């Protein structure tokens, strides 16, 4: 185990020295990888802020709700039991009780309905509850509504999720677009690393041949190059993070001013710790994959010749 760690430590130091030996080439490669990686990372950040904008925009007043109508035969005690259950239910943000008397009074103010309601023998409107779900994803709301329908003394459950469905459809479209962009640019990152490592191997062809003559294994020969590719990916990920963070700071002022003009609670935030870890880890992994693919081909060609 100690020997294995020492070999990797030696390979890491060798990769760092190779990066430092050609600072201009390293810087250009890091910038190219950083720009390619920053595009999907920035797109994901914009999507996240678009969700916050949708929550704070005027259209958010049409937040999805679930209306629960109590059976006409139910008394206030039954309605109280339903209300207590709804308030205790996990996944419910708020519950508002709408008495049938309030509904009748409101309907009497509507033009042409007063005479019709006076002709009826009683109050035709049931007690109702307006439930705001904590999670407005359509599938979660459907599950809540299905559970409400099973409650005793509940006659009808109406799900108003048109706004949530529109938002969810737009977010799915945005996520699909960002994912496609990430896959394309991820392949580009692998290709960049592939070519850089191939040039590294060609420039050190004599060193590789001498190592083979001395009995070095392919794993020993590959190790510094693999570390080189992984470090290149990591540095490119750091460059991408800096680009996204700088863009966030640059846009924060104009976006904040726009939010104040429209009374939106919106502020651009740089990538958090989890997003940063995913960005750096993905860039490092892609650099490692590019280096490994390049070395596999280069060493196979070298062994064949």
UniProtKB/TrEMBL annotation:
It holds the Pfam family FtsX. It is found in: Cell inner membrane. It is a multi-pass membrane protein. Keywords: Cell cycle, Cell division, Cell inner membrane, Cell membrane, Membrane, Transmembrane, Transmembrane helix. Residues 65-157 form the FtsX extracellular domain. Part of the ABC transporter FtsEX involved in cellular division. Forms a membrane-associated complex with FtsE. This is Cell division protein FtsX.
């Amino acid at each position: 185990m100690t020997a294995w760690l020492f070999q990797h430590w030696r390979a890491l130091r060798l990769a760092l020295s190779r990066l430092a030996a050609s600072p201009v080439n390293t810087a250009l490669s890091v910038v190219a990888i950083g720009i390619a990686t920053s595009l999907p990372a920035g797109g994901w950040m914009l999507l996240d802020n678009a969700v916050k904008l949708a929550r704070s925009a005027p259209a958010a007043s049409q937040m999805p709700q679930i209306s629960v109508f109590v059976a006409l035969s139910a008394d206030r005690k039954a309605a109280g039991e339903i209300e207590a259950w709804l308030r205790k239910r996990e996944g419910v943000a708020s519950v508002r009780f709408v008495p049938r008397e309030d509904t009748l009074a409101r309907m009497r103010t509507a033009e042409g309905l007063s005479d019709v309601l006076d002709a009826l023998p009683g109050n035709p409107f049931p007690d109702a509850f307006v439930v705001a779900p904590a999670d407005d994803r359509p599938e979660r709301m459907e599950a809540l509504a299905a559970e409400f329908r099973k409650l005793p003394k509940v006659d009808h459950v109406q799900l108003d999720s048109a706004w949530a469905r529109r938002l969810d459809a737009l977010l799915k479209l945005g996520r699909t677009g960002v994912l496609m962009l990430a896959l394309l640019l991820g392949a580009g990152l692998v290709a960049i690393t592939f070519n850089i490592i191939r040039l590294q191997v060609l420039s050190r062809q004599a060193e590789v041949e001498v190592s083979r003559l001395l009995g070095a294994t392919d794993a020993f020969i590959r190790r510094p190059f693999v570390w080189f590719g992984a470090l290149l990916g990591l540095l490119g990920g750091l460059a991408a993070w800096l680009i996204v963070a700088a863009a966030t700071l640059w846009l924060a002022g104009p976006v904040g001013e726009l939010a104040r003009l429209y009374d939106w609670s919106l502020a651009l935030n740089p990538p958090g710790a989890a997003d940063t870890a995913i960005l750096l880890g993905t860039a490092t992994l892609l650099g490692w994959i590019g280096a490994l693919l390049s070395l596999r081909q280069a060493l196979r060609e070298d062994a064949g010749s």
